[in-house]
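Why do we care about 3D structure at all? Because function follows from shape, and shape follows, mostly, from sequence. That is the central idea of this module. The next example makes it concrete: a single protein chain, its amino acid sequence, and then its structure expressed as tokens.
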Amino acid sequence: MGRPEKPIATLNLGLLALAGWLREIRTNAQLTYVELAARTGNAYSATTLQRAASGKGVPRLSVVEAYAVACGQPLEQARRRWRHARAVEHSAALALGSAPRPRLVENAAELRAALREMYHRAGAMPLREMERRAGLGRLPRSTMRRVLDGTTMLSKDQMLRFPLAAGQLDTGTDGPGGSSHR
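And the structure:
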């Protein structure tokens, strides 16, 4: 058995919960980090997996997903915990809740604010990953960056893909599709 892990020291309560959960599921699965890495097919090193559970920063979603699967945990729970940690991380810098709900949007500026808030509430996934999820060329990361910066607007097709790419699967209730017809 290796040396004991250092205590998790972070002010991000979402990250604290995520790192604690990662440590708990690895302990329950009775795996060392080397064994955990082997269970991921060595897609991630033992060091990367240990860093994910350290609480020093929010790890990439793919690392958290691989960690959870290797420990026999459901992907949706891993994704939910990761999104929460990212949202808490970004809410410290942003005033989330200031944008109108997408269905109540009245102009382009409010729509951009609602899309930006949706992006951050969904965990501010890296734009490269969102581009991959939407399908290459369907939602370019350069366009998403300009939307998040407030300098351009998505096309109707891109607007319908945005919530799915951001990890917001409940587009029927609060996605921008309801306001895209205005």
